[in-house]
Amino acid sequence: MAGSGTAALRDEALLRVEDLVVEYRGTGREVSHAVSGISFDVQAGETLGIVGESGCGKSTTVRAVLQLPKPTRGSVRFDGRELTTLPGGAMRRERQRMQLIQQDPIAALNPRRKVRDIVAEGLDVWGDGGERDARVAAILDAVGLDVDLVGDRRPGEFSGGQCQRIAIARALMLQPEVLVCDEPVSALDVSIQAQIVNLLHDLADRFGLTVLFVSHDLSVIKLVSDRVMVLYLGKVCELGVTEGVYARPAHPYTRLLLDSLPVPDPEVTLPPIPAVGEMPSVSAPPSGCRFRTRCPLATERCAQEEPQLAEVGPGHLVACHHPVV
């Protein structure tokens, strides 16, 4: 079956993902359906936030875009070039233009190397070491670090927030066009998260980056994203301009996520959220709508027919038989 939302894809998009499927085989005949036929696109200079509960397929989706590993099926077109059919060497060259920032900044850095060498690693690998020291100093300054103070030290001497700044500097050294941020602040203290989020937002504007930003924190997604895509159990529930989705969520799952956000006002009393149980297993997803087993609006149709993404407003797509509009 074709993935939902294909008709809404834009031809001029820098990144175009169509009918993406990622499956993992376990013991025996068990198959984990991590991502099941999703489609989306991202225009140059745009930030797409990808949000959902743990296990919904967020990280799997963005890593499949980078071909780490290649998806089971589907199309990933970057700047008009199909990535899924590229041989290893050609794909490796394309990754210079698409860099990844990982969740755990300390584990992502080699503890035995000096910071200046970690940041310059891309230049060293690709033989583009001209003015190496000047470029390292400039990019470290862009992320708020002084090369004279940190260049000859090692990652173990820094906090998590400082290590994430170093990881961001390393990702930017090859002047990528796309930056994939896979839960870049979830491992950091709350007091540091805002600093890193603001830094990424400023760097995206400064360098004209196209960003895929993965997070389970809806507050963070709202701050950084132009559009937001809500995933549930490997499927797209809702996709649209961030302000519109947050102001008028149409999918019951999106409403559930937003209702779970704390309100910073002691005078506000909120209605209780109905008990909806746990997310089903990706190896045995429900028939029809995958959210139906937890949805208060589910009907027999939801069990028999899989909903497809459809517009409920300009650029606002929802996969639900009973959207709240």
From TrEMBL:
- Supply the PROSITE patterns for this chain: ABC_TRANSPORTER_1, ABC_TRANSPORTER_2
Question: What are the GO MF terms of this UniProt record?
Answer: ATP binding
Database matches in CDD domains? ABC_NikE_OppD_transporters
Q: Which domain of life is it from?
A: Bacteria
InterPro entries tied to this protein: AAA+_ATPase (IPR003593), ABC_transp_ATP-bind (IPR050319), ABC_transporter-like_ATP-bd (IPR003439), ABC_transporter-like_CS (IPR017871), Oligopep_ABC_C (IPR013563), P-loop_NTPase (IPR027417)
Which keywords annotate this record?
ATP-binding, Nucleotide-binding, Transport
From the UniProt record, list the coiled-coil ranges. none
| Gene3D superfamilies, A to Z | P-loop containing nucleotide triphosphate hydrolases
Q: What are the residue boundaries of the ABC transporter domain, all occurrences included?
A: 15-258
**SUPFAM superfamilies, per the entry:** P-loop containing nucleoside triphosphate hydrolases
- Indicate whether Glycoprotein appears among the record's keywords: no
Respond yes or no to whether keyword Transport is given for this record: yes
Q: What Pfam families does the entry give?
A: ABC_tran, oligo_HPY
Protein family membership: Belongs to the ABC transporter superfamily.
The protein's matches in PANTHER family, at most eight in alphabetical order, are given as:
D,D-DIPEPTIDE TRANSPORT ATP-BINDING PROTEIN DDPF-RELATED, TRANSPORT ATP-BINDING PROTEIN
This protein is called: ABC transporter ATP-binding protein
Species name for this entry? Pseudonocardia lutea
Q: What is the lineage of its organism?
A: Bacteria, Bacillati, Actinomycetota, Actinomycetes, Pseudonocardiales
